[in-house]
Design brief:
There is one protein chain. By secondary structure, this protein is of the alpha/beta class. Helices cover 38% and strands 18% of the residues. The strands form 5 sheets. The chain has a 7-stranded mixed sheet with strand order 15-14-13-12-11-10-17, with helices on one face. A 6-stranded mixed sheet has the order 5-4-3-2-1-16.
Length: 643
């Protein structure tokens, strides 16, 4: 299980009603195709051995005996395959018929899971034929000449992997069996189904699968019967859905007249991390876990080589695509505005003071402040924007800062920091020609002093501009731009800032302001603390110094969101950025990330207040808490050995 990934499949074989020999031949074929693609666990639909739509034929001894014979023959024929297989069929025990899932591997049956909740819809009433698992007396069932475990609470365990199974209707009840299975340890849940097709039903099934995978913090694989089932009164379109913790990874096409194998990988390591972090996940388990719970070991097949992912690894996990991006931007914007509105109202602040550089972060902070003022009924003139040109300020950023403040109709001032910094350099004995850290940080601290003093003078509040990515890397001057009275961008990653400004430009601004904002979006990211080149262009490009923000945001997301170790982040980054960065580049910046993240914690330990907008925040009060003197040696050593 390299990097915690388990390859699973939802199989949809062709079916012939009541033809067990044909059906098991189709199952075997898909099992072998799955094994060729290194699938480790595969599931087939409900009643796949007989077909689901046999109706009163389920009472025929001929069908029931042939189903059992066909199952045993299938298991014998596939004894050379190591993948764990789940297949549905009817079985008789205790003088009653049960709808079951058979779990087998390497020619041996491991256990049988009976269905708990039987459908009783007018179009298909299972209670006519089957009995619920709640009616069982014993805990074993005879198949052929042997007895096997029979339990709705069976979990099949191999190391960190724990498989739980429910059948069709089980998912539709208020408290599905999979909820208890998850609390009993199952982190991959399978639902073998035979749900018929209706208008709008697929959307509803998708929502159920998505929500159940999130509620159980698990992988959830759903497969249902398709072409070949009886169409007497119903049509079965076939579904293959793979979800993980609230995200749909695969959704196979329906109404296919061909067999289908929907394959995906479930990230067990990330799921286990989420369960560990979510301390409420196991609350109440002591009262819910039944005494009849039973675990059965199995051998998880390994990959023949390095894991090849079929699932997409998003290179920009903070930035969704399509309509979801607009929704994300509006939500983040609304959270920022609501947070700042509460702070301004609570403190009875007369003015909001903000430093405007012409860059992305200060632009976003200004836009949020303007929208907040509008919401509170404040005059925009109560916002004091201050541009503070220094040694590295270029004409493009300077002009954009002035034009933006004018377009937004706020109060604005220009206060050069050159004279004050030169005096400071003379006072401390700093050679202005030496462009070292003192030269740079003196400018940032001078700007912060101006903002703080103007805020005091105007009964105002300094609005911070720094973003989440800068905080992660410590790319801020301690007690300089690191400090403010409320940091509205504190949990907005750099990769999202650009899209937020662009979204606000197109959705909230007039044409003149939009043009200014779009030029700011296209401006290279720079602190502008080093003088411009001979042509007046920015000479200090941030991403040339600390690395691409898209890489650092990717590293940050997987490190904090899932607790991923460096080797896994490196592996994922190679998949996500395969056409953009080579392995050496990724490794180089991954090392920079971990070195800076640990070394710069002291800056995050004393952050100003700021609103949390997403699942990741570095606030030392309510989110990420780490000692300022924690050692990075374990992480850096692992990075050093990556190849």
């Amino acid at each position: 299980m390299e990097f915690g990934f388990v390859r699973v499949a939802a199989a949809k074989p062709l079916t012939d009603v009541a033809n067990c020999v044909y059906n098991t031949a189709q199952i075997e074929g898909l099992m072998r195709k799955a094994a060729e693609q290194e699938v480790q666990i595969v599931a087939f639909p409900e009643m796949a051995i007989t077909s689901y739509t046999c109706m009163d034929l389920f009472f025929q001894q001929t069908l029931l005996q042939e189903a059992e014979n066909a199952l045993l023959n299938l298991i014998e024929r596939t004894a050379d395959l190591s993948l764990l297989t789940i297949v549905g069929m009817p079985l008789v025990t205790e003088n009653r018929l049960f709808n079951t899932a058979i779990v087998f591997q390497k020619g041996k049956i491991l256990g049988v899971v009976p269905k708990t909740y039987l459908s009783n819809y007018k179009e298909f009433q299972e209670q006519r034929w089957f009995t619920s698992s709640t009616e069982l007396i014993g805990d074993t069932i005879r198949i052929g000449e042997k007895e096997y475990p029979l339990n709705s609470h069976l979990t099949f365990v191999s190391g960190e992997v724990s498989v739980g199974i429910e059948i069709c209707e089980d998912m539709w009840v208020p408290v599905p069996p999979s909820c208890q299975l998850a609390m009993e340890g199952a982190n991959i849940l399978f639902n073998i189904s035979a749900s018929n097709e209706l208008i709008g039903k697929h959307t509803y099934v998708l929502s159920l699968v998505k929500q159940q995978s999130a509620r159980c913090i698990a992988g959830y694989i759903y497969t249902s019967a398709g072409f070949g089932e009886s169409s007497t009164d119903l049509v079965f379109a076939g579904r293959g859905i793979i979800a993980e913790n609230g995200t749909i990874l695969q959704d196979a096409p329906r109404f296919s007249m061909e067999e289908q194998l929907t394959i995906g990988e479930i990230d067990i390591a990330s799921l286990q991390n989420d369960r560990l972090v979510n301390v409420g996940f196991m609350h109440g388990a002591s009262t819910l876990l039944p005494a009849k719970r039973k675990t059965i070991p199995f051998d998880l097949p390994g990959y023949s080589g390095q894991t090849i992912l079929t699932r997409r690894i998003d290179p920009h996990p903070f930035v969704p695509s399509g309509n979801a991006l607009d929704e994300r931007c509006e939500e983040v914007y609304s959270i920022q505005v609501a947070g700042l509105a509460k702070r301004l109202k609570h403190t009875h602040t007369h003015t909001a003071v903000i430093g405007i550089s012409g860059g992305l972060d200060s632009t976003l902070a200004l836009l949020i402040t303007v929208m907040t003022a509008d919401l509170l009924g404040m005059s925009r003139k109560q916002i004091v924007g201050i541009t503070m040109p220094g040694f590295g300020t270029t004409g493009r950023t300077y002009n954009n800062s002035i034009r933006l403040m004018q377009a937004l109709d706020i109060s604005y001032r220009e206060i050069s920091i050159v004279k004050a910094c030169m005096q400071h350099f003379e006072d401390i004995g700093q050679d202005p020609a030496v462009h070292d850290v003192t030269f740079e940080n003196s400018q940032a601290r001078e700007r912060t002093q101006i903002l703080m003093d103007v805020a005091n003078k105007e009964n105002g509040m300094v609005i911070g501009t720094g973003d989440l990515s800068e905080l992660a890397l410590g790319w801020a001057t301690y007690n300089g731009d690191h400090m403010s009275m409320y940091g509205v961008n504190a949990s907005v990653p750099k990769t999202l800032v650009r899209y937020l400004v662009n979204w606000i430009a197109h959705n909230k601004m007039d044409k003149q302001t939009r043009e200014i904002l779009l030029d700011i979006v296209d401006t290279p990211i720079s602190p502008e603390l080093i003088p411009a080149d001979e042509q007046g262009n920015i000479s200090q490009i941030t991403e040339d110094l600390v690395g691409p923000y898209e890489l650092h945001d990717f590293f940050l997301y997987h490190f904090l969101r899932f607790g991923a170790r460096p080797s896994k982040i490196y592996f994922l980054a190679q998949h996500a950025f395969r056409d953009i960065y080579d392995k050496e580049t990724i490794k180089k910046w991954l090392q920079v990330f971990f070195r800076r993240f640990f070394n710069q914690q002291f800056k995050r330990s004393c952050l100003p207040d700021g609103p949390k907008v997403g699942s990741i925040s570095l606030s030392p009060r309510g989110d990420f808490r780490m000692p300022s003197d924690a050692s990075s040696s374990l992480w850096l050593e692992e990075v050093a050995h990556l190849s």
